[in-house]
Amino acid sequence: MMKVFVTGVNGQLGHDCVNELIKRGYEVTGSDIQPSGAGNYVRLDITDKAAVQKVISDIRPDAVIHCAAWTAVDAAEDEENRPKVRSINAAGTRYIAEAVKAVNAKMIYISTDYVFDGQGGRPWQPDDKCYAPLNVYGRSKLDGELAVSETLDKYFIVRIAWVFGLNGNNFIKTMINAGKKHDTVRVVNDQIGTPTYTADLARLLADMAETEKYGYYHATNEGGYISWYDFCVEIYRQYGLETKVVPVTTAEYGLSKAKRPFNSRLDRAKLTEAGFRPLPDWKDALGRYLKEAAL
Q1: What pTM was computed for the model?
Q2: Is 225 considered catalytic here?
Q3: Residue 219: CB atoms within 10 Å
Q4: Domain map (residue ranges) of the chain
């Protein structure tokens, strides 16, 4: 029976990964920095190198799915937060990778479209070189990628975008709450990408853990490239809200602390080429999410 260690299990993706792996009958241990009610769980601060080494050497997993990360993109720009962002996303990831190497396990590292500069209109390929991330978060996740690729041979680096899941806050919940309170909402229409449902992604990551098809991958739901405006319109259509959605440019919407990429198109063809089953269409994923979330 495969033993799998999952970090960040209190987040959207880590939570779904644990459920998917348990469903498959694997021996799963989850961790997070906060206490959890989950069954097989260890509390772990991934910025504590000695603690990381001890936990992973004690468990001796066959695979580690590393979901833990600092993901508050705007807060990452604050001067006082930057050392912590780097310590979690870069140093913490290196500690995990080193501990994984010591027990000869494989590692799946969850990365992001933010490692790219967000320019142009061509979909990013998994093996494109990453230069000039736009913000502190993107740079820290790129440093995490490098920590994994420099330390290990047996690794998957999986870049995702526009994530939504049951266990936490996301764009869908935010827009439904806004749509219930307001007659009109403004949503940017010049940032282009594809949503990723964590329940579908968790299935893919479990599939990956069962193989040795290592390398860089892009994984979002299928269904083409859309704007946040398009996504919101479809959310309201499926949910049944009459709220008017007004498309605006990023400049019109107003600057956030962190620069956002205009081009978040991730090319997913490598998944199929490697024999992995792609994620379903994002509209289908949205429909299943809305049923399960019961918002």
Answers
A1: 0.96
A2: no
A3: 25
A4: 3-169+194-221+265-279
